[in-house]
Design a protein that fits this description.
This protein is mainly beta. It has one helix spanning 3-14, and strands at 17-18, 33-34, 53-63, 69-74, 80-84, 89-93, 99-104, 116-122, 139-145, 150-158, 165-166, 170-176, 187-189, 195-199, 217-221, 238-241, 245-251, 257-262, 267-272, 298-301, 307-313, 316-321, 326-331, 337-341, 349-354, 359-364, 380-387. It has a single domain, classed as 6 Propeller (Neuraminidase).
Length: 391
């Protein structure tokens, strides 16, 4: 079914957003109906001071018929942009539910896990406004696989809701080793205005412990690709090392960076990222308690996670799980409590980001060749949040 044919269904689905009922650690009972994107009642709307939250109720379909989507970013206009890995297409979801193609990122070559991966926006079109001290121009950044490498590019984001287009593409960072697996691919602007990128080891494990290699690392660069003067190692883009295939980045309310990472056969990880830190791969997988390496704050069996997108909202982490086919909700503390939601209900979940009006968005990834597509896949889902109730 074509994207144009599925749009009508998605728009109709937007008219059926459930009112949510608090639950313990599972979805709530059958909901009643309210309007799309409207704030929940005061008791169910998390705020900056509300403390930890939990998903409640049945997710609503915002878009469907997406082809191997990888990353989603919301815009101030009310639209959202989605990257489709295999074709290199950028898709716009408008606030009313319509879906259209914005353009194609040049040079994308899909093989294995490679293709058009993470996207990010800088400038006044960001949801939080021009927080990165940009000029009046907005830029769309993309992490992609080409015939020769992985690289980060950027393009002017022109126009407005329903009519966005891409300007001339320029390179920001080139020469990252590519492979059919372990390409990393998440890019995010941090609260410091710098661009952070997760880069996999490209299946050569020695890359992760080689300071001269940019693979198996989390990188920190200026918006134009230069080395920030305050990076841990002068002249190097490397922010942390010893990573296998990290694909999630998020900052907490204190500005602390966190990352979600694929393990190999035993443990997937959630890591608190310290500048210049070494996270152990390939010497250590999971919690190894070895001198010189930083252990994860939480670990999962690889069958339960395969973590990709990571988000933080209201003292709560949300982690998308591909192989685990669920959403992990994680509560920081002396021990990091992790609770699963939607296990095996929507298949592989690739990305998760904060949504509007006390929600989160989840992007499924069942059409990438590894999932089992359900009718309408792939989908962008919206989930209500409510203050955490223990039990």
């Amino acid at each position: 079914m074509s994207r144009r044919k599925t749009t009508a269904f998605a728009m109709a689905a937007l008219m059926l957003v459930p009112v949510l009922t608090l639950t313990g650690c599972t979805s709530g009972p059958a909901p009643t109906v309210t309007a799309p994107h409207s704030p929940a009642s005061p008791s169910a709307t998390p705020t900056a001071s509300a403390g930890p939250v939990q998903p409640v109720g049945t997710p609503t379909v915002l878009a469907q018929g997406l082809a191997a989507p990888w990353s989603v970013v919301r815009l101030k206009s009310g639209s959202a942009l989605i990257s489709e890995r295999d074709s290199g297409t950028i898709v716009e979801l408008q606030s009313g539910g319509a879906v259209r193609d914005v353009g194609t990122v040049s040079g994308v070559l899909h093989r294995g896990e490679g293709g058009l991966l993470g996207i990010e926006v800088r400038g006044p079109d960001r949801v939080d406004g021009d927080s990165q001290n940009a000029t009046g121009e907005s830029w769309l950044y993309a992490y992609l696989t080409t015939a020769s490498d992985n690289r980060i590019v950027r393009m002017p984001l022109n126009g407005g809701a329903g009519a966005y287009s891409l300007g001339t593409q320029e390179d920001v960072l080139t020469g990252l080793k590519r492979a059919t697996n372990h390409d990393g691919g998440r890019i995010k602007f941090g609260p410091d205005g710098m661009l952070y990128a997760t880069v996999g080891d490209a299946t050569t494990t020695a890359n992760a412990q080689n300071p001269a290699s940019l693979n198996g690392k989390i990188l920190r660069l200026t918006p134009t690709g230069a080395v920030p003067k305050d990076n841990p190692t002068p002249g190097s883009l490397v922010y942390s090392m010893g990573h296998r295939n990290p694909q999630g980045l998020a900052w907490d309310s204190d500005g602390q960076l966190w990352a979600a990472e694929f393990g190999q056969n035993t443990w997937d990880e959630l890591n608190r990222i310290e500048p210049g830190g070494n996270y152990g791969w390939p010497t250590v997988e999971g919690i190894g308690q070895k001198d010189g390496f930083i252990d994860p704050v939480h670990q999962w069996k690889t069958s339960e996670a395969s973590p990709s997108g990571l988000a933080y909202l209201n003292d709560t982490f949300f982690m998308a799980a591909l192989g685990g086919r669920r959403l992990w909700v994680i509560y920081p503390g002396s021990q990091f409590d992790a609770v699963e939601y939607f296990a095996n209900e929507y298949g592989r979940i690739r990305d998760v980001i904060p949504g509007p009006d006390g929600t989160i968005w989840m992007l499924t990834n069942n059409t990438d060749g590894r999932g089992s597509p359900q009718p309408g896949d792939d989908k962008l889902l919206q989930v209500r949040l409510a203050p955490l109730r223990e039990g």
